[in-house]
Specification:
The protein has about 550 residues and is an alpha/beta fold. The strands form four sheets. The chain has an eight-stranded mixed beta sheet, with helices on both faces. It is about 35% helix and about 20% strand. It is built from 17 helices and 19 strands. It has two domains: about 1-155, 3-Layer(aba) Sandwich (Leucine Aminopeptidase, subunit E, domain 1); about 200-480, Aminopeptidase. A hairpin with a 6-residue loop joins β3 and β4. The protein has helices at about 10-15, 35-45, 80-95, 115-130, 155-175, 185-195, 210-215, 215-225, 275-290, 335-350, 365-370, 380-395, 430-435, 470-480, 480-490, 520-525, 535-540; strands at about 1-5, 20-25, 55-60, 65-75, 100-105, 145-150, 200-205, 230-240, 245-255, 295-305, 320, 325-330, 355-360, 375-380, 400, 420, 445-450, 455, 460-465. The radius of gyration is 24 Å and the shape is elongated. It binds ligand BES, manganese (II) ion and zinc ion.
Length: about 550
Amino acid sequence: MDFALKNADLAAAANEKADALVVLVPEGFKPGTDALSALIQTARSAGDFEGKPGQTLQLYAPAGFGARRVTLAGVGAGLARHVAQAVRSALGGLKDSPVRKLALVLAALDQPGEDVVRAAVLACGDATYVYTYTKAKARASTIGRVTLLSPAGIGRQGVAEGRALAEGIAFAKEWGNRPGNHATPTLLGQAARTLARLPRVQVEVLGPKEVAALGMGSFIAVAKGSVEPLRFIVLRYNGAAKSVAPHVLVGKGITFDTGGISIKPAGEMDEMKFDMCGAASVLGTFRALGEFQPAINVVGLIASCENMPDGQALKPGDVVTSMSGQTIEVLNTDAEGRLVLCDALTYAERFKPQSVVDIATLTGACVISLGGVRSGLFSTDEALAADLQAAGEQAGDLCWRLPLDDDYADGLKTHFADVANVAGRAGGAITAAKFLQRFASAYPWAHLDIAGTAWKGGAAKGSTGRPVGLLFQYLLNLAAKPAAADAVAATRKPGGRRKTAAPVAAEVVPAKAARRTPAATVAAVAAPAVRKTASARKAAAPAPVRARRGARPAA
Ligand code: BES
Ligand code: MN
Ligand code: ZN
């Protein structure tokens, strides 16, 4: 989706040519003498509209308006989350109308902050995302362009950030949602490769041979039970000087988790296609970085394979040797996430990183602890934990810190290896984190357990795109810190590209990468990896899955 920003007051907004005009109206709105104010006033005095958060009123525009449809959308006191709610309900009401060009009026708001504008843009992306990939008839949203009409000077930063982040979230949602047979490790590797079309993004995809040469015995052991070959994906975003140490993101990329020989019960096992949402969040964050071009260096590592039962599969009691040299007794093959992550964490050491954050749908225990509202946060570093927690609050993509006392690691002791891969049932999210901590001693480290937040079950089953919002915010905050900015400034020619603010549209890009503009890459990256004829798509489509109300938090 394309976003544009225009300076316009309410009078000008009524003339804007569009298929639909969505007007954000606060509860205490003071009407002017223009036509839109009159319309709002009529609705209010008729008792049809007050401006409460989420309240909408769909109208046909009076003669003389530039658009045929007008939706009034209440935003209460105008908080970012209420603006997001308003945009989602307004767009929900228009989803069956042939709206291509939408104008979103911010001019009735009282001095909206950039966070409000950003929330509006993100909500547009959120409301128009439709999963279509394996459906014969589903149609994507018709809305192709959103023009934000705001009072002078407001919204440049918000639109730029929101637009990049919306792309990243949509990318993460899409790959999270694709079924296991349409999102194999190989396909995930190909999806990662498409990101290399973005300026300053490089991607390398390693297969079984290279991973064996690296000595990733733990990761390989999980992959052994599947005929799908594993992939280890290395992404780089170089937005700062080479000399600036990177921040590393590590994603769990289990494209389907049956549990292996310690097989899972059948109920809701389909949801284990979402077990690569950590990986998807890394890909989505790189998409957003590539679009926004902040001054920071980031490395993304994804360990991707299937966890399957098979004659070759890893068995309970097997002892494997990790890349770190530590041996691991695999007491439960369903605790596979930590087995692939530990080798990725060891690999991360070679970047001498400033920080490493892993993101994983790691434990059912975390779903029990925190539900679907906050992701679990664990960290060995106070500053890093505070940065992540703050970024989550800022982005509305929340997390909550859980402890890492050494006593929690007692259950991981075993007679047959350096460490066991599971402890008892008690404190399962924490004992999983304690396992990972053993492989993350070389740098400040944090772990996000997104088992409860990465997707929704029930009638609204689908990937949420979390925690791309948190990760992108965290990285933007780091890029804005003086040390990082100085390092970058030193590498740039005077009069070169901007330091912090990104372009609203695609017209401003780093000179070096001018031929690969974000806009040009959007279509390419968004295009399905496989071109489907109608019949091929039918054949490939899985049987319809009935929505089921399960233990997972629903919408
Ligand atoms: N992918 C699962 C975790 C999971 C389960 C996420 C349910 C979301 C919903 C992970 O690989 C797993 O199976 N973990 C086990 C660990 C146990 C064997 C110690 C779990 O949580 O049951
Ligand atoms: Mn598992
Ligand atoms: Zn898993």
